[in-house]
Amino acid sequence: MIKISFKQGTILIKGNVRVPNSVWDERSESFRAPAMYYKDIINYLKDSGIDFEDSVLDLIPCPDLAAAYEASGKKLKLRDYQAEALISWGENEKRGVLVLPTGSGKTLTGIRAIAGCNTPALVVVPTLDLLEQWKKELEEAFSMEIGKLGGGDKKILPVTVSTYDSAYIHAETLGNRYGLIIFDEVHHLPATGYRSIAEFSASPCRLGLTATYEREDGLHTELNRLVGGKVYEKKVSELAGGHLAPYTIKRVSIALTDEEQKEYEKKYSVFLDYLRKTGMIMRSPQDFQKLVMKSGRDPEARKALLARNAARDLAFNSDSKIEKLREILEQHRDDRIFIFTEHNRLVHRISNSFFIPAITYRTPSKERSSILEKFREGRYRAVVTSKVLDEGIDVPEANIGIIASGTGSKRAYVQRLGRILRKKEGKEAVLYEIIAEETTETGTAKRRKEAVSTRKKPDNAEAKSQEGVSRADI
Length: 474
Fold this sequence. Notes:
Number of helices: 18
Region (Disordered): 441-474
Number of strands: 21
Shape: globular
Domain Helicase C-terminal: 321-469
Mean pLDDT: 88
Helix content: 25-40%
Family: Belongs to the helicase family. RAD25/XPB subfamily.
Protein name: DNA 3'-5' helicase
CATH class of the largest domain: Alpha Beta
Keywords: ATP-binding, Helicase, Hydrolase, Isomerase, Nucleotide-binding
Strand content: 15-25%
Low-confidence stretches: 454-474
Number of domains: 4
Largest sheet: 8 strands, mixed
CATH topology of the largest domain: Rossmann fold
Structural class: alpha/beta
């Protein structure tokens, strides 16, 4: 008789049979496989007609979640695309990633998946803000206490929300306690370390949720192995004006001052000269990483990298940007505004120049919560931030976004656009991009705008509108 069991994130297979994805382990004198292949192992043994004893899953005793959801009075009707997404997921054996825009109801979709699977569920999220948000909505949906793993708490219950960091720490012990594991903002999962959360889990049902599936480093292909790949997708442009607020994207071009332009060209030419001299070509983040590594041992590479950074710093922090930002803020005196920058230096400059509260990675949690609550209430009309509000912030009142500086990351772009797209009666959202002419920012903006394009357009089509998206140069 073949016996399979769970041990520290792996499946032990006792008996004279080798199953797929397993290797012989001398210490346990058995074949061993990562726990994530539990479902595949079961299917293989059944299809092969091999008798086996299964003691892998040790699920946390769980109430009838489907009945609890029905009885809570918080049952919400799924939108058509949410229902379609869950059907696609179900047809893929309840495995896979749903790609839905920010503000389209990914949390509700996840809650309905939990009720439908009716099995203990672990929800993994990247931030403490999202942990609290999920916990609150799950408690309302099921009228029961929800477990919490992260932020100093360790309470394991039939339905538990965990940060990625905490789930990673406890992966070996929790891997067989849940029948369903949900990864919110699943694009984080392929990162080194985090992927072991999925590898050490035997959960037969796996659901990934994200607005931005692709990663610049290409590691999103790992999601095929870890979760089940992309099974459903809706783009921002498909939901704008219906389930999301209608929006306009406006590209605002500014010129550096004469002094800034001269200094920019001087600095950037050092970088370009080095690339020409060495034959290096920057086609991807991986190419740039090679330069960073080379700078550790090559003084000329270091000099080129520092010059490139200094040039970008000039473009990001131009006096002309501050003046253009002043105009936009004046134009939207009665609106609720998020201002996004790439680095903290510009955050603090904007905060000090316009007396706008700032949120960075150094802002204490209580202070951040206080700022956002005052923003929701209208006591603050604007907030300036670097990258910390790209995910997990639900502020329907925000209707204006301003990207004062940013990278070419399509993921960050979609996340920032999503901050202002949550539906509210009469709301029309506008996302401004302030771009320094004759700098690398023009190419950066061109790359990231592809994230919301439904088809490729020629450069002279900036002012055209398509499927709820319009762009205009100002």
